[in-house]
Design brief:
283 residues; alpha/beta; Rossmann fold; 2 domains; five-stranded mixed beta sheet; three-stranded parallel beta sheet; 9 helices
Length: 283
């Protein structure tokens, strides 16, 4: 799928610098695409961002600690910090209202933004995120984890291929090379190994925080149109009670299914683009 030219930029947000990519031109409500944890940065979403940006701006960015964005010196990967980054990008681009679109681990982030900034959010899109728990999303809250270094690019690809729902780097060598950086003893993943830490250290530990919240309660606060887009073969929906609860408690939520495992942007980009464009066509 050919990708049109796009522009890039950076914005300082708290203790990090966030790298982002902008597709399209101002028009209808812009969209902000947020990648997951094993789907490593904005590169995974280029085709989808480009395909959506026919009548609006669409941005995909590298979350703090990932890709071309910097690692947090205070190890601040809390939900508040990620929310701040997203809102900083929206402010940098002059967006009055926008559409947060969060894949996998970022589904929690997108829902939180929609719940807490109803006057800034035009619609909410959650691609294949299975409504994981509390504010930390079950994340380990530690620092000092070892760098993830592989002997070779092939070794990295083979390692990720073992996952139940392998990411694009497991089969796309060019993508794998972009996700790695050469170091003295091999190839390091461009991701802070402490990216799941929700308890920052140093000065960041003293910053004010929102009280911990439950993702289900946050979703109940969302007033804009909502679409969940799930992979028919994804492992994020093993518990049927999650889907049953969504259908029961959120009857206005639109649930769309595409033929894919968890990496919907890689395995079903055309279907994702078509369904998202249909959902936001009048927004």
């Amino acid at each position: 799928m050919a990708i049109r030219a796009h522009r890039t930029g950076t914005v300082v947000s708290g203790d990090v610098t966030i790298f982002y990519r902008v597709f399209g031109k101002p028009g209808r409500a812009p969209a902000l695409i947020m990648h997951g944890a094993n789907y490593f940065d904005s590169l995974d979403w280029l085709a989808v961002a480009d395909g959506i940006a026919t009548d609006r701006e669409v941005v995909c960015y590298d979350k703090r600690g990932f890709g071309n964005s910097t690692w947090s010196p205070g190890k601040d990967y809390s939900l508040d910090a990620h929310v701040g980054d997203a809102m900083m990008i929206a402010g940098e681009l002059g967006w009055r209202k926008f559409i947060p679109m969060g894949h996998s681990a970022s589904g929690r982030l997108a829902i939180t933004i929609a719940a807490n900034f109803p006057d800034r959010v035009a619609a909410l899109i959650v691609p294949d995120s299975g409504m994981g728990g509390e504010e930390g999303g079950g994340q380990r809250q530690t620092t000092g984890n070892p760098l993830l270094i592989f002997e070779s690019v092939e070794a990295a690809m083979a390692s990720f291929a073992k996952l139940a729902n392998p990411p694009r780097v497991s089969h796309d060598r060019a993508r794998a090379e972009a996700a790695l950086v050469k170091v003295d003893n091999g190839y390091m993943l461009r991701r802070d190994p402490d990216f799941q830490n929700a308890n920052p250290v140093g000065e960041a530990a003293g910053l004010p925080r929102r009280p911990p919240s439950n993702v289900w309660d946050d979703l109940a606060k969302v007033t804009c149109p909502v679409m969940f887009l799930r992979g028919a073969r994804s492992d994020r929906w093993k518990d049927p009670k999650v889907l049953e609860r969504l259908e029961r408690e959120y009857p206005k939520l639109l649930m769309v299914v595409v033929d894919s495992q968890h990496d919907v942007a890689d395995q079903a980009p055309g279907a994702v683009i078509a369904r998202v464009r249909e959902f936001i066509s009048n927004i």
